């Protein structure tokens, strides 16, 4: 298998609400789709983010739809170029309706990090890591 991640699909409770958050709050570039497609894509370089109704995603995977409030056991991350950018982005997310779960702080591995929760409960880390090349 080639070492790459092509797409992350998030099962969301309300597609319109989730699209508004990712488009208007995080300002991600949305890929045009036909009206009524029932899915939204955001291009993030060579990886795409897909938003799809949670119940339909569970049905597609053939698994039971568990509680959306449960910790899913994973986080998503967005790395930024400076320590100050962590604070700035978390402040912007909070102003636009995102929930700050862990405020920005210097962390043991030498960077700066904080977490927010999107409108469907997915956890995003905003991080500056001096040893990570992709920011």
TrEMBL record:
Q: What is this protein called?
A: VOC domain-containing protein
What are the VOC domain coordinates in residue numbering?
4-129
PROSITE patterns (alphabetical): VOC
Check the record and name the Gene3D superfamilies matching this protein: 2,3-Dihydroxybiphenyl 1,2-Dioxygenase, domain 1 (3.10.180.10)
Which species expresses this protein natively?
A: Gulbenkiania mobilis
């Amino acid at each position: 298998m080639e070492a790459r991640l092509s797409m992350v699909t998030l099962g969301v409770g309300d597609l319109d609400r989730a699209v508004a958050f990712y488009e208007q709050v995080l300002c991600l570039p949305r890929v045009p789709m036909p009206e009524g497609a029932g899915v939204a894509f955001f291009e993030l370089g060579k990886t795409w983010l897909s938003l799809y109704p949670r119940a339909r995603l569970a049905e597609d995977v053939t698994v039971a739809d568990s509680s959306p409030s449960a910790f899913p056991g994973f986080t998503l991350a967005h790395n930024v170029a400076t320590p100050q950018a962590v604070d700035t982005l978390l402040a912007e997310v909070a102003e636009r309706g995102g929930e700050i779960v862990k405020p920005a702080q210097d962390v043991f591995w030498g960077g700066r990090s904080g977490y927010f929760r999107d409108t469907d409960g997915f956890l995003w880390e905003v991080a500056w890591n001096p040893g990570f090349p992709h920011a």
